Amino acid sequence: MSRLLISDDRKAIIMLISGGGVEISCNGKPMNFLTANTTDAAQEKHVPQVTVDSKKVSVQVGSVAHPMTEAHLIQWIYLQTKRGGQYVHLTANDKPVAEFIVADDDEPIAAYEYCNLHGLWKADIT
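Above: the chain's sequence. Below: its structure in token form.
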């Protein structure tokens, strides 16, 4: 996947699609790379659950429903594919689920989600 970076204040996340070797900063402070599944939090509420049905990919965040409030929510779900990826933005009014359609010449590789309190989580798709 392209690499994700987060600002020091956790208010900005960017995707580095290609390249590297340069410092990327926000408000004069270096941004840090995000690493999935490193936060000490309930895995059952954060690890994406993925179902693949032909070209339709459904992603549900957690085996137990994740809260979706203004103070604690899943901000987005990203489906990584061999040829790129797809992104769904969520709000506190949404359920922590997303559905994607993958092109005929593509296939899903991994699902990511970002919790505003517990960071980035990933599930590989085999």
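The mean pLDDT is 93.
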